[in-house]
Amino acid sequence: MSAQSRTERPDRPESTDRRRELLAIAAELFADKGFRNTTVRDIADAAGILSGSLYHHFDSKESMVDEILSSFQAELFAAYDAVLLSDDDARTKIERAVRLSFEAIDRHRHEVAIFQNEADLLGQQERFAYLAERNAQSREVWITLLDDGLRSGALRPDLDIELTYRFIRDTVWVAVRWYRPGGKLTHTDVADQYLTILLDGIAHA
Amino acid sequence: MSAQSRTERPDRPESTDRRRELLAIAAELFADKGFRNTTVRDIADAAGILSGSLYHHFDSKESMVDEILSSFQAELFAAYDAVLLSDDDARTKIERAVRLSFEAIDRHRHEVAIFQNEADLLGQQERFAYLAERNAQSREVWITLLDDGLRSGALRPDLDIELTYRFIRDTVWVAVRWYRPGGKLTHTDVADQYLTILLDGIAHA
DNA sequence: GTCTATATGCCGATAGAC
DNA sequence: GTCTATCGGCATATAGAC
Question: Which sections of the sequence are annotated for DNA binding (chains A, B) (predicted)?
Answer without folding.
Answer: 39-58
